[in-house]
């Protein structure tokens, strides 16, 4: 929603992309979208209900699909991961640090992988650096 500046711009974006979910959220709160802009329901009222909706509601999931797992699901996955790790720790594979169990994938969490920082030095520059005279390290 950051691409649309201002509250009305944000609301316009959400209505353009998730109108049905917004209407459902408003109905749950006893409001109808057709009332928006009347003395009963201001644009700001609809915006406030939209940005503070329950993350597990249809609108919350439409705005942020990573919210599909709540605290209960996160804790259950953590418990299962811990139990699998404890079970693995009692095996011969654990003694050799191989076949470690992989954690249950979580929505919105990317796999940890190797990341490289910095830039590669050209081979000629590396050879030049290695050819430079070195002084002994002071003890």
In short:
The chain has 139 residues and is an all-alpha fold. The protein has helices at residues 6-28, 43-51, 58-63, 71-89, 92-95, 123-131.
Compressed to H and E, one letter per element, the order equals HHHHHH
Q: Bin the strand percentage.
A: under 5%
Task: Show unreliable segments.
Answer: none
Write down how many β-strands occur, each being a DSSP E stretch of 2 or more residues.
0
Give me the number of helical elements.
Answer: 6
Shape: flat
- End-to-end C-alpha gap: 59 Å
Into which percent range does the helicity of residues fall? Answer: 40-55%
| Helix-strand category | mainly alpha
Rg from Cα: 27 Å
Largest sheet: none
Average of pLDDT: 84
What does this structure look like?
- With 139 residues, this protein is an all-alpha fold.
- 50% of the residues lie in helices and 0% in strands.
- It is built from 6 helices and no strands.
Write the topology of this structure.
Elements: H1 6-28, H2 43-51, H3 58-63, H4 71-89, H5 92-95, H6 123-131
Q: Which short descriptors sum up this protein?
A:
flat; 139 residues; mainly alpha
């Amino acid at each position: 929603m950051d691409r649309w500046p201002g509250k009305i711009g944000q609301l316009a974006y959400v209505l353009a992309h998730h109108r049905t979910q917004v209407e459902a959220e408003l109905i749950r709160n006893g409001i109808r979208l057709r009332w928006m802009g009347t003395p009963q329901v201001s644009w700001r009222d609809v915006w406030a209900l939209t940005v503070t909706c329950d993350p597990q509601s249809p609108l919350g999931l439409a705005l942020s699909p990573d919210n599909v797992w709540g605290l209960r699901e996160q804790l259950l996955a953590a418990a299962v991961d811990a139990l699998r790790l404890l079970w693995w720790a009692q095996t011969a594979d654990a003694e050799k640090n191989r076949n470690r169990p992989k954690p249950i994938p979580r929505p919105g969490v990317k796999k940890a992988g190797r990341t490289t920082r910095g830039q590669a030095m050209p081979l000629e520059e590396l050879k030049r650096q290695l050819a430079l005279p070195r002084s002994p390290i002071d003890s």
